[in-house]
Specification:
This protein has about 180 residues and is of the alpha/beta class. It has one domain. Helix content is about 20%, strand content about 10%. A four-stranded mixed beta sheet has the order 1-2-4-3, with helices on one face. Strand 1, helix 1 and strand 2 form a beta-alpha-beta unit. Helix 1 packs across helix 2. The longest helix has 15 residues. The protein starts with about 30 loop residues before the first strand and ends in an 11-residue tail after the last helix.
């Protein structure tokens, strides 16, 4: 997404996928598009580092070129429940320049689908988004393409904070944001 910031949308249900798994015979499916698996593995590893023992066996992540151009990612659930099929669709037409941007997008959507987190539009004291669950930005901890003037545009140092906050909403404001 480079400098382009697009909305990250979450909806209740789409494409006829049921939100309830209470139906008799619910069979969870785990099917993650190959190049996106690393980000699910990162999510699970970062959760474990922070003391969360998570298992995901009811997740489908796939590319969907039919998503609205303003939507980079979408999840069908805001529930922590494991008795429903979770589906994340990623727009392959979204301008994503760096691995950190697709990682932030997938982690954001997993925040909805697995952690049950809603969007959080709050800001830190310096004006940066408070959370990776922000609805409008995947450039949270991306490196920069071109440094202009003396302003540092490499934000990779912010990744640790955003991952801490993803798994613990009470994470204190970092020094760089004061």
């Amino acid at each position: 997404m480079g400098s382009l910031k697009r909305s990250i949308v979450t909806v209740g249900a789409f494409m006829g996928i049921p939100l309830t798994g209470c139906e008799q015979g619910f069979e969870p499916i785990y099917e993650v598009t190959g190049d996106l698996r690393i980000h699910v593995d990162t999510f699970l590893a970062e959760a474990a580092i922070r003391g969360h023992d998570l298992t995901i066996d009811n997740l489908i992540i796939e590319y969907d070129p039919e998503l609205a151009s303003s939507t980079c990612g979408i999840c069908n659930s805001h529930s922590q429940s494991n008795d429903i099929q979770k589906v994340i669709k990623i727009n392959p037409n979204c301008t994503i320049t760096y691995n950190e941007q697709i990682e932030a997008l997938v982690l954001h959507e997993l925040g909805h689908c697995v952690l049950g987190r809603p969007h959080d539009a709050d800001l830190l004291p310096n004006g940066d988004p408070k959370s990776i669950m922000t609805p409008r930005n995947t450039d949270l901890y991306a490196p920069c393409v071109y440094q202009i003037a003396e302003e540092d545009c490499n934000f990779t140092f912010k990744r640790g904070y955003y991952l801490d906050e993803l798994f613990d909403e009470s994470t204190p404001v970092p020094e760089w944001a004061k």
